[in-house]
Amino acid sequence: MPDKLLGRIGDFLQSRRPWYELPKLLSMPRLIEIRNQLRRENLHDTEEPAFVKHEIPPDLDRAVREGRSIDGSYNDLNYPAMGCANRRFGRNFALEHTFPDTANLMIPSPRVVSRELMTRDQFQPATILNLLAAAWIQFMVHDWFVHKRSSPKEGVDIPLAPGDDWSDGKMRIPRSVPDPAPAGSTRPPAYANSNSHWWDGSQIYGSDAVVAAKLRTGEGGTLKLEATKLLPIDPETGVHLTGFSDNWWIGLAMLHTMFTREHNFLCGLLAKEHRSWTDAQLFAKAKLINSALMAKIHTVEWTPAILPHPVIEVGMHANWYGLAGDELQDVFTFLNDDEILGGIVGSKHDHHAAPYSLTEEFVSVYRLHPLIPDRLLFRKLSSDAAIETIELPAMAGRHTPGVASRISMTDLFYSFGRAHPGAITLHNYPKHLQNLTRDDGEHLDLAAVDIYRDRERGVPRYNQFRRLIHKDPVKSFEELTDNVVWREQIRKVYNNDLEKVDLMTGLFAEPLPPGFGFSETAFRVFVLMASRRLKSDRFFTDDYRAELYTEFGLHYIRENSMLSVLKRHYPDLAPALQGVDNAFKPWRAAGSGGVHGTPSLG
């Protein structure tokens, strides 16, 4: 009833006044109705053939019923392959809108878009956040998705404009590899996700059996760590051994290390309570709890930090806890059946209009590379004194383990807590990522690749994207951005054709509502998919219960946060966190009386 009632109020509030400008009590119902409309109209399946319902075998292995599988299979017991590794990305738009515009894949050249609109002239900091917020979202993205790529030899050449200083003479990038389609298919190309689609900590645990086996000690459910409490180094890659190590840098190494330690800590606590449990039982239960804790941190801490709008803070809290809060739910357990009052977590699972998957449009709105600085000043926690300044390439790839071994984890986390990420806007793309040489020798402009990937995968350009996400298209370059200089640059790059403006360009140019760290257009996909990642997952809905998590596990998730995890594993950080209410906001300077951050060197 509350959902329907709020939806009717939201319908009543339909007007030219956007939801974020309404009073708080009116904006919440409007936002809920936006989400409900997106659930009805913006979830589309790409699987060929479609999933077929299976009866649940009465003798199904208990471990399959009660724990997360390696590859994400059997999350939905009636549809075992739904959301597992190597299943297709879905779409947020009807499939007829997702064919790639092959005639215009290079118009304008992605490299021109990168050079003229993305290049960081001067580092623009996001002062409401610390750099952990940037590392965190990459940490999460690596749990969610990765596309299969061709070899560079089978790739595509990005056109270079006259006078381009690209050192190779040409820029060849791999293509996205489409999932094989059945004979006679008339659908647009679809792509498989090498990761599990579920929110299951696969960046820590791996999404395939071979990787997962390499990570485990085989004793007490634990994952491998060196005596130094750092991740071991993979001799094959030269970077740390973990579930997913692509695009590795020191920010990822820190979070992977800490949550590997958190997993092992949980194993120790569980072993004390359940002395008869095997290695496999301890591992499965710690994974279940650790994955849920990471999802909670993202929902109620990271998201309100980057979107510090009061309605979003209430909405994200309601996604996890419900509007009624924990205390009322403990007394009135029936509230858990209603996701508005009782929260999505613990409610009945629902896939809404399509089988669960992550979507290509979800991937596109998570192109947040401007958050990353080109260089960073590392500091001592004990005194705030400078240790060294490191350029991004020198703390990435095979250089990462060296940084982790010579600068303590305590000082690394302190340095990130004191620095700001970049603002998500035009002319703030990391220069090092526009001239990136990977460990395997591949040389590319990642901003140009980002632009090309959306076009290649049939993600609509900015104005069409807005139409399909139920927003009015912008009618002029003046409406697109309030920056006069950018306006003329965009007009020139896109030859005065507003409909050609790429999604990423529009998202970075769009004026932001108060309290937003990224565009409201992108937020439409976030508000849909943030709920969907919880609502479709039985381990956050029907099976979020003591029989699977244990009473200890549910209590642990409820009582812990990013702040408590940091203090548990790196207790010396406590003074820097004093008075900080969110771990992704700027931390205290050593020896200071206030709470503030400093820009990284950009």
Outline? globular
Task: Report Rg.
Answer: 23 Å
Total domains? 2
Task: Determine the CATH superfamily of the largest domain.
Answer: Haem peroxidase domain superfamily, animal type
Describe the protein in words:
- The chain is mainly alpha-helical.
- The chain folds into 2 domains: 1-33, no CATH class; 42-599, Myeloperoxidase, subunit C (Orthogonal Bundle), CATH 1.10.640.10.
- Helices cover 41% and strands 5% of the residues.
- The protein has 25 helices and 10 strands.
- It has helices at 2-12, 24-41, 62-66, 110-118, 132-144, 202-205, 209-215, 250-273, 279-306, 310-320, 325-331, 339-342, 360-365, 400-406, 409-418, 431-434, 446-456, 462-468, 477-480, 484-493, 503-509, 520-535, 546-559, 562-569, 574-577, and strands spanning 87-88, 156-158, 171-173, 192-193, 375-379, 386-391, 419-420, 436-437, 443-444, 598-599.
- A two-stranded antiparallel sheet has the order 1-4.
- α1 (2-12) packs across α2 (24-41) and α4 (110-118) packs across α17 (446-456).
- The longest helix is centred in the middle third of the chain and has 28 residues, at 279-306.
- The chain is globular.
- 49% of the residues are buried.
- The model is unreliable at 327-336 (pLDDT under 50).
